[in-house]
Inverse folding.
């Protein structure tokens, strides 16, 4: 066991844990975050996806000791009680059926839009192609990503004042 400090959704957590423990287990079991889920345990389905320093990361196969930088989970997307545009688009497009994959879909889409704020349909399909949905709601997922992209571009980059208020809050 060792003391490791993790920055999760903007909050620092120091935990006495086995460094080889998968990040997913720490997030769910130690920090009680329910967004990332256990799916395949092999990093193939994507339901465990979180964002680590801007990169969509499969937390079920990522040893916690290898994580450096900020970890963002589904719970960390909403700010000040306001849903992230992706979360709102998911609701507006009525994406979920069973809902099991939605964490992975939203977090992968977030990383995609952070790198490419105005993706084409082909770029969305390519960016999302390893995140599986058992219910086959891929067309609604694509529509939600396009809706969120438009909303995010329309809103523009966050102002410096808004970013400072967010840190203080």
């Amino acid at each position: 066991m060792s003391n490791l400090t993790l920055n999760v959704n903007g909050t620092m957590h120091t935990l006495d844990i086995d460094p080889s423990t998968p990040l997913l287990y720490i997030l769910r079991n130690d920090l009680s975050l329910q967004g990332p889920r256990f799916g395949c345990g092999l990093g193939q389905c994507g339901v465990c996806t979180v964002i680590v320093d801007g990169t969509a990361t499969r937390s079920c196969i990522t040893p916690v000791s290898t994580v450096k930088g900020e970890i963002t989970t589904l719970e960390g997307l909403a700010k000040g009680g306001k849903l992230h545009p992706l979360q709102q688009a998911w609701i507006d497009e009525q994406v979920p059926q069973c809902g099991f994959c939605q964490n992975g879909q939203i977090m992968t889409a977030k990383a995609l839009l952070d790198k490419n704020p105005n993706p084409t349909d082909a770029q969305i399909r390519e960016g999302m192609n390893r995140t599986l949905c058992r219910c086959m709601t891929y067309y609604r997922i694509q529509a939600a990503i396009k809706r969120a992209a438009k909303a995010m571009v329309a809103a523009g980059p966050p102002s410096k004042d808004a970013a400072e208020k967010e840190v203080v809050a």
User: Anything to note?
Assistant: The two ends are 33 Å apart (CA to CA). Residues 138-155 form the longest helix (18 residues). The chain has two domains: 2-76, 85-154.
